[in-house]
Write a structure and sequence with these properties.
This protein is an all-alpha fold and 196 residues long. It has one domain. The chain has 7 helices and no strands. It has helices spanning 4-32, 37-60, 62-65, 71-91, 106-133, 137-164, 166-195. Helix 2 (37-60) packs parallel to helix 5 (106-133). The termini are far apart. Belongs to the TerC family. Keywords: Membrane, Transmembrane, Transmembrane helix.
């Protein structure tokens, strides 16, 4: 189980996770930044739990997903929708009720944004991890667990920073928009190649 090749695969998976978890963490941080501390924890835990399920499901069919033309394009469009929702939220002032709590529905909205964004952004991560893990299933599962944990920890830190420094939210939005455009362009290119 712990052969040299499997340990090398695990090292590759950890490096991939560290590299790719940042984009997802920015999305989660942006989605939960206006929630109070207790709701923020709930949103992060729920979103990360959903991310774990999504990534596990994607990992099971990862190799077959490579053959689906247009999947990256569709993921980019989904992520573009998330960017639009975040942009609208960043443009309006913080919405709170009379007690100073976030507006009703904010928690549900944040969780939905986290799940949609993770669904659209996880494909690259899962495929990279599945490719690096090779035939070592325990490496694949460990890699997916590490990526989800990294995303949760980084998202909490990013959300705190966004509370203090609003301009970081705009930078984060640009990062997520860049990922969406990359997925749309790359996925669109695949579709065009297949059509022609």
């Amino acid at each position: 189980m712990f052969s040299l090749s499997s340990l090398m695969a695990l090292l590759q998976v950890v490096l991939i996770d560290i590299t790719l978890a940042g984009d997802n963490a920015v999305v989660v941080g942006l989605a939960v930044r206006r929630l109070e501390a207790s709701q923020r924890r709930i949103a992060v835990l729920t979103g990360v739990g959903a991310a774990a399920v999504i990534r596990l499901a994607l990992a099971v069919v990862a190799t077959k997903m490579l053959a689906i033309i247009g999947l990256r394009f569709a993921g980019g469009l989904l992520l573009l929708w998330v960017c639009w929702k975040m942009y609208r939220e960043l443009r309006r002032p913080d919405v709170h009720d009379e007690d100073g709590a976030p507006a009703p529905g904010a928690l549900r909205s944040a969780i939905i944004r986290i799940i949609v964004a993770d669904l659209s952004m996880s494909l690259d991560n899962v495929l990279a991890v599945a490719g690096a893990a090779g035939e070592h299933i325990w490496v694949l599962v460990s890699g997916l667990a590490i990526s989800v944990i990294l995303m949760a920890v980084a998202a909490t830190v990013i959300a705190r920073l966004l509370d203090r420094y609003r301009w970081i939210a705009w930078v984060g939005l640009l990062v997520v928009l860049g990922v969406a455009i990359e997925l749309i362009v790359g996925g669109g290119h695949e579709v065009l190649e297949h059509v022609t």
